[in-house]
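Reviewer 2 asked us to include a model.

Predict the structure of this chain.
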Amino acid sequence: MKPGIFASLLILIFSLPSVAEEDPIYTGLFNNRGAGGYDVVSYFTDGAAVKGSKEYQVQYQGAEWRFSSEEHLSMFQENPEKYAPQYGGYCAWAMARGYTAKGDPEHWRIVDGKLYLNYDARVKATWEKDIPGFIKSADVNYPKLTGAGEN
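Predicted model (structure tokens):
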């Protein structure tokens, strides 16, 4: 094979994942747990990141969501849109910048009644410098990057 053709094939192969749509819910590579298995209701009720239990779980938007109590599971089932993290749990700052990265359930913030996750403490601090601007950009990018909301 000629070197130019080989190089072109390599570029094509490595560029495909960047143009492919991501799943609307971030679950990582080795499981199917939304928000890394953390109880998303606990952010609102306890003001803390609390790990969920497989004893209290439900399927929502193709992912498994875990909770720390039956009460939290019921609250989520009654209104999942209220508790599920924005952008499917992807990093809010990365989404605003036009790409996807994992959202870490330990680096979170509730803004206007919505839960946002970020990649790490440094990224969260950057995101917090212009929350409204980053949310506006991420709101536009999320459907483009994941196909969420498309029929």
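Residues 24-146 form one domain. Confidence is low (pLDDT under 50) at residues 8-19. We have added this to the supplementary material.
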